[in-house]
Design brief:
Strand order of the largest sheet: 3-2-1-4-5-7-8
CATH architecture of the largest domain: 3-Layer(aba) Sandwich
CATH class of the largest domain: Alpha Beta
Number of domains: 2
Strand content: 15-25%
Structural class: alpha/beta
Radius of gyration: 22 Å
Distance between the termini: 67 Å
CATH topology of the largest domain: Rossmann fold
Largest sheet: 7 strands, mixed
Length: about 300
């Protein structure tokens, strides 16, 4: 009996793990649709192109599949099932309608919360104690289709986004392993999402790392850990210079009990800055774009 033909859309290390699972099982993956690595992005993760190359699976990197040329190419592949794992572009409904066994996506949140882009970064920024992965049917609206399965993990209040990503990443492979046979047999059970609980967040840009000192110490700390290395980082501008803040402490001996006007430098060495409800000690910083200015107590960032 001919095995169902799987067309895999994917990127990131989650995509690598899930494609590797299918190839290890001997599933019939007819092609990979993925992304070219962005030269301006720090590539700190494995990508599914590596797994595809090892097994001789054709890999394509179109800027968009939602045009006549690529719809024809995908139709020619005759996919029985589409699986998308951390693919960064929307896939149009004409393509989603092609496979007889449906089109499915693995999203990096416990849907219906955190639909959209960068869900793990957003969850860390909002101080979530638990994150996860969801396997769901793909529909016209992003991350809105019926849920097949979910798997979650606890994260700590000091975990960075990368640490959170590392903790949650095995959930995708575990979930796919549990459900792939049902997907291929067309027997997967689906549960509609509760739209009243849905939240949506867009992609994050480097500018979104700008620190608002009028926020609380906890809010600023969560921003810092959500965008610290390998992400673009949190920052404050001081004249033409940019102060990158890679880590901070909310309860260090030098910050505890200190107060001032938000953004006010309370200490230079160590560097302590006032927030809406206290102060942060900036423990790992870097000056960019120009020579480091001479900070002084009472200065506003």
């Amino acid at each position: 009996m001919t095995k169902p033909r799987i067309l895999f859309f994917g990127y990131s290390e989650v995509g690598f793990d899930c494609l590797s699972l299918l190839l290890e099982r001997g599933d019939n993956v007819v092609a990979l649709v993925t992304h070219e690595d962005n030269p301006h992005e720090k590539i700190w993760f494995k990508t599914p192109a590596v797994a595809a190359k090892e097994k001789g699976v054709p890999a394509f990197t179109p800027e968009s599949v939602n045009n006549d040329e690529w719809r024809a190419k995908i139709a020619a592949l005759q996919p029985d099932l589409i699986l998308s794992v951390y693919y960064r572009h929307m896939i149009g409904t004409k393509i989603l309608a092609m496979p007889r066994l449906g089109a499915w996506n693995i999203h990096g949140s416990l849907l219906p919360a955190y639909r959209g882009r960068a869900p793990i970064n957003w969850a860390v920024l909002h101080g979530e104690p638990r994150i996860g992965m969801t396997l769901h049917r793909m529909v016209k609206s992003a991350d809105a289709g019926a849920v097949v399965d979910q798997e979650g993990v606890e994260i700590g209040p000091r975990d960075t986004a990368e640490q959170a990503f590392r903790k949650v990443m095995p959930c995708a492979r575990c979930m796919l392993s549990r459900q792939i046979d049902a997907l291929l047999a067309g027997t997967a059970k689906e549960t509609p999402q509760d739209e009243s609980k849905a939240t949506y967040f867009g992609g994050r840009k480097p500018e979104d790392g700008r620190i608002n000192w009028s926020q609380t110490s906890a809010q600023i700390f969560n921003l810092i850990r959500a965008v610290t290395d390998p992400y673009p980082g949190a920052f404050a501008d001081v004249g033409p210079a940019r102060l990158m803040v890679w880590w901070a402490e909310t309860n260090s001996a030098t910050a505890r009990g200190r107060k001032g006007s938000p953004g006010e430098v309370l200490s230079v060495s160590p560097l302590v800055v006032a927030t809406a409800d206290g102060a942060l000690e900036l423990t790992k910083t870097e000056w960019r774009q120009t020579a480091a200015p001479e900070l002084r107590v009472g200065q506003r960032l």
